[in-house]
Amino acid sequence: MNGPERKKYNPENKTGYEYVLLADHLAGLIADGDWPAGSRIPGERALSEEYGVALDTVRKATKILRDRGLVQTLKSKGTFVTSPRS
């Protein structure tokens, strides 16, 4: 295998759309505190390479996170984890 080892985001082999499974995994990183509020998450290309998925898969997953209110994307700045809602 060439290149870095890909991270697994679906170890239980759940079925469903790849972008939803990836979004659920990334949401778990936020919930577990691996990505605390205010932190910048890796860019789309970096996540694509890290998880071995297409760039469009990452974009759709990021949109789901935005729709859930977990992240906010600022143009030319990046995507940041939002503060938890009270």
Annotation keywords:
Arc Repressor Mutant, subunit A, single chain, 86 residues, globular, mainly alpha
Can you walk through the features of this model?
- The structure is a single chain.
- By secondary structure, the chain is mainly alpha-helical.
- The chain has a domain at 18-75: Arc Repressor Mutant, subunit A (Orthogonal Bundle).
- The chain is built from 3 helices and 2 strands; from the N terminus they run H-H-H-E-E.
- It has helices spanning 18-31, 44-51, 55-67, and strands spanning 71-74, 78-81.
- The chain has a two-stranded antiparallel sheet with strand order 1-2.
- A hairpin with a 3-residue loop joins strand 1 (71-74) and strand 2 (78-81).
- Helix 2 (44-51) crosses helix 3 (55-67).
- It is globular, with a radius of gyration of 13 Å.
- The chain starts with 17 loop residues before the first helix and ends in a 5-residue tail after the last strand.
- The relative contact order is 0.19.
- InterPro entries: Bact_HTH_transcr_reg (IPR050679), Tscrpt_reg_HTH_GntR (IPR000524), WH-like_DNA-bd_sf (IPR036388), WH_DNA-bd_sf (IPR036390).
- One of its GO terms (biological process) is negative regulation of DNA-templated transcription.
- Keywords: DNA-binding, Transcription, Transcription regulation.
Task: Write out the CATH superfamily name of the domain at 18-75.
Answer: Winged helix-like DNA-binding domain superfamily/Winged helix DNA-binding domain
Level-1 CATH class name of the domain at 18-75: Mainly Alpha
Specify the biggest β-sheet: 2 strands, antiparallel
Globally, the shape reads globular
Low-confidence stretches: none
Overall mean pLDDT score? 89
- The total of helices stands at 3
Strand order of the largest sheet: 1-2
Radius of gyration: 13 Å
Q: Indicate the CATH architecture of the domain at 18-75.
A: Orthogonal Bundle
What is the rounded distance between the termini?
A: 46 Å
